[in-house]
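User: what does the whole thing look like in 3D?
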Amino acid sequence: MSAATLTQFLIDITRGHRRDAFAADPAAVLSASMLDAATRAAVQDQDVAALWLAGAHPMALMYFARASGWANERYYRCICDAELTRAGSAEAARTAGPEPSRRHRSSAPHAP
Amino acid sequence: MLAAATVHFPYMTGWPERASSEHRAATTAGFAQLGRAFADASIETVVVFTSEHIVNLQPRLAPAFLIGVGESHAAFPEPQFKLAPVTRLGDPELADALVRALYDAGFDPAHSSELRLDHGTTLPLAQLGIADDVRIVPIIVNSIFAPLPTLARCRALGAAVAAALATSTLGRRVALLATGGISHTVGAPGMERNDPAFDGAFLGALAAGDLDRACAYSDSVLDAAGNGTHEIRNWIAVAAAMHPARPRIVTDIAYAPGWDSGVHQLLWDTA
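Assistant: Here's the predicted 3D structure for the full assembly of 383 residues, as structure tokens:
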């Protein structure tokens, strides 16, 4: 599953054609989606950190958080913490072998 | 031809009180100055090089350039920014002519009869006081879903639009408006700060008429200045359309605490 697929799904359920259906029955919309099981669970649980680390586009993810009732402060704190987690993991991996950490970029928001 | 460029960050309407009174006053004065220039020129149609925030463009379909050719352009509701749910008049005749002229010039913009506006366009139009009977031709430049059009391509687009307008037989009094930027971050860590050094360098290049320098940034450099910085494509397009004219810097606030942004505005008044 690509990050673009995740991003498109988040858009569809927050401001697109699946918005009303998702509000009425999120489990049904998720089960019909192309998301993998882990990502479906992250959406269901509003696990914004996991979705961030999965490569969701920042703007689409922010809209999802807002639609889920999150204040901006909570959202930014969550993704900053997720980045720290990523950095910690990358540092641990660096000691085992070279692997560059990933950053979210508009020019390549879904790059691994 | 008249042209302007301005930031469009929605904190200024959603939470104006967060900024200092000095910065609010300078921003209001800047918009007023630009708005007066448009009003004094009796502009009939504004061609807006703009960015949007996942209203029309999505991963499903993200053209480099999208021109609104409809009779009108309804705004996506954004009540959190205290923006009225306006519907702006379109200029389908001019928009159609622009699309055709751009095809002839080697561009292939997408076109939409149901393009929707968001704060990237409605906020500056409102702050400038652009009257309801002034027609709008939005040109959305993809600045959110990679791959993005290159800065050089945006420069060429601006020049091609200017050439099309210069040879138009429709007789419109047209102004250009660029919105967005300059450096900022949306939805990602670092949203609380812009990059004043980047902003100063970019503005300096535009003010000097040095489009080579303005277009020399790589996408990775723009990323480092903040993911919203890609909106400088709109400024480059208008600067290229007006070249060799140089703009006046109307507003230059390096950083406005509370609004988490710089406030920058340019005016090309070459008439």
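In plain terms: Strands of chain B lie at 2-6, 45-50, 65-68, 72-74, 87-89, 110-112, 135-141, 174-179, 248-256, 261-269. Residues 109 and 198 of chain B are 29 Å apart (CA to CA).
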